[in-house]
Amino acid sequence: MIDLYYWSTPNGHKITIFLEEAGLPYKVIPVNIGKGDQFRDEFLAIAPNNRIPALVDHAPKSGSKPISVFESGAMLMYLAEKTGKFLSDDLAVRYDAIQWVFWQMGGLGPMAGQNHHFRNYAQEKITYAIDRYVNETNRLYGVLNKRLADRKFIAGDYSIADMASYPWIVPYKNQSQDINDFPHLKRWLETIAERPAVKRAYEIAKEVNPNFGQPPIRTEEERKLLFGQTSAVVKS
């Protein structure tokens, strides 16, 4: 059994998609980031960066004691290695997928996240910041669109590379992007959206978070919890 510490964010969706695709048994442990659950001692013990998602595998492949993993990219790689699914054994194909996972972790996710923040959540609308992140998100969409011009999925067969990027493209409207400008990306997005496991993963989001799909910042307390963090939140 895997314990999945989860909230309904793009990074959280990555892992529920994998688990549903692989048919692994797991238990969702909600971490309501708007209420500060990410600062609880039991969560920080496995996720010292106080960010979701994280997991504890009580039956690791090695047969050792339980293994905990945080950071969604590392979690996807761990689960792929555990199951032998969605990451090729062929070295060239394997690292083709891995490099695109890192691309998402280092580029698409952070840039789209800052895009969301400055466009939708920042109380002061800073034109330079909005333009900077909207434009960089647009560039990254272009990179992925070009990659998908001659292939169905990012790294050949459906893989963790697709699972990593898909949840960050779903909210394209909130990122001020016109998906019709990226026909190959649009085709890929629609293809993955129709996968039964992906549909189940997003249903889980609705079950865990009744406010899923609504603006995540509804109170000043939520704003402070999510956007007012300094080193003071890290307990010594």
What is this structure, in a nutshell?
Residues 90-212 form the GST C-terminal domain. The chain is α+β, with helices and mostly antiparallel strands.
Architecture overview:
With 236 residues, this protein is an alpha+beta fold. It has two domains: 2-85 and 197-233, Glutaredoxin (3-Layer(aba) Sandwich); 91-194, Glutathione S-transferase Yfyf (Class Pi), Chain A, domain 2, CATH 1.20.1050.10. It contains nine helices and four strands, in the order E-H-E-H-E-E-H-H-H-H-H-H-H. It has helices at residues 10-22, 41-44, 72-83, 91-121, 127-147, 160-169, 183-193, 196-208, 220-227, and strands at 2-6, 26-30, 54-57, 67-70. A four-stranded mixed sheet has the order 2-1-3-4, covered by helices on one side. Helix 1 links the parallel strand 1 and strand 2. Helix 1 (10-22) crosses helix 6 (160-169) and helix 1 (10-22) crosses helix 8 (196-208). The protein is globular. It starts with a strand and ends in a 9-residue tail after the last helix. The mean pLDDT is 94. Belongs to the GST superfamily. It comes from Tardiphaga robiniae. Residues 90-212 form the GST C-terminal domain. Residues 1-87 form the GST N-terminal domain. InterPro entries: Glutathione-S-Trfase_C-like, Glutathione-S-Trfase_C_sf, Glutathione_S-Trfase, Glutathione_S-Trfase_N, GST_C, Thioredoxin-like_sf.
